[in-house]
Amino acid sequence: MFYFFMIRPQQKKAKDAKKFVEEIKKGDYVVTIGGAHGHVAELEGDTFILEVEKGGRIRFNKSAISLEASKIANSKK
User: Fold this and answer.
1) How far is CA 74 from CA 3, 28, 44, in A?
2) Can you give the pLDDT at residue 76?
3) Strands (E), the chain
4) What is the spatial distance between Cα 47 and Cα 73, in angstroms, rounded to a whole number?
5) Which of 7, 15, 30, 54 lies 20 to 30 Å from 39 when distance is taken between CA atoms?
6) What is the model's pTM?
7) CA-to-CA distance for 4 and 24, rounded, in angstroms?
8) Which top CATH class is 2-75?
9) pLDDT at residue 77, rounded to an integer
10) 31 burial class (0-12, 13-18, 19+ CB within 10 angstroms)?
């Protein structure tokens, strides 16, 4: 019982997050875990460059993308 209520949901959530990060492509709108919003300008291995307002560009690790926040932000568009 413990497995189905605690461990299994965590494994599924981690798998979904990993798949989401692997499928990110140039031009996608994402939100980082720190709350930065923007479009992916470039992808380089396990990092990406996020283009924010007024042409600002910031480099992040792909692990900084928030799956939940990105889905919510994209659904509001």
Assistant:
1) 32, 9, 23
2) 75
3) 29-31, 37-44, 47-51, 57-61
4) 21
5) 15
6) 0.77
7) 30
8) mainly beta
9) 65
10) buried
- Domain extents in the chain: 2-75
Which residue in the block uniquely carries the two structure tokens 């600002």? 56
C-beta atoms surrounding 35 within 10 Å:
8
Q: What is the pLDDT along the chain (77 residues), one digit of tens a residue?
A: 777 778 888 888 889 889 988 999 999 999 999 999 999 999 999 999 999 999 899 999 999 998 888 788 878 76
d(CA 3, CA 28): 35
CB 11 within 8 A of CB 44: no
**Cα Rg of the chain, angstroms:** 14
Query: Amino acid identity, residue 17?
Result: A
Find residue 7's DSSP bridge partners. none
